[in-house]
Specification:
about 150 residues; mainly alpha; Cytochrome Bc1 Complex, Chain D, domain 2
């Protein structure tokens, strides 16, 4: 092999190695952060709503079904319009429950299996009886429409 062919080969080997090294040592983009710190509720009376929830002018037909199911099975703890109740259950209209952090499937799994307390100090949520996965998906639709109206997306 000629000297110029060796020089070209060495150039590509060194260049390829530098490209691979650069790709492996490239700084990672910062991951989005979520504020997982619940708000201070010490100034809210026991059982009072935790969040102020603005209601949409209209709900989709699926969200209307979800609202009825929510009122029948969830509002007892999570309060009217998912605003939460201090000392009882958290608001679902809260950044913690945004779709990028808690998917709709997380709502299904919570209703089906219960949830161990991890964001709030209200204790564990037991599994809910009498709700199908489809019912919970309608409930999630209702909650998502409330969230969107309140700037949570």
């Amino acid at each position: 092999m000629s000297k110029s062919a060796l020089a070209i080969l060495a150039f590509f080997i060194v260049g390829g190695g530098l490209a691979i090294w650069g790709a492996m040592n490239k700084p990672q983009a910062a991951l989005p952060t979520h504020s997982m710190t619940p708000p201070d509720t010490s100034g809210i009376a026991q059982g009072d709503p935790i969040a102020e929830v603005a209601l949409p002018a209209a709900l989709s037909s699926d969200a209307q079904i979800g609202k009825r199911a929510f009122e029948a099975k969830c509002a007892r703890c999570h309060g009217a319009n998912a605003a939460g109740q201090n000392g009882i259950a958290p608001p679902l209209v809260h950044k913690i429950y945004e779709p990028n952090h808690h998917s709709d499937m997380a709502f299904v799994m919570a209703a089906r299996n219960g949830v161990q307390s991890h964001h709030w100090d209200f204790g564990n949520m037991p599994p809910l009886e009498g709700l199908t996965d489809a019912d919970v998906k309608y409930i999630a639709r209702y909650v998502r429409e409330l969230q969107r109206e309140n700037g949570i997306q």
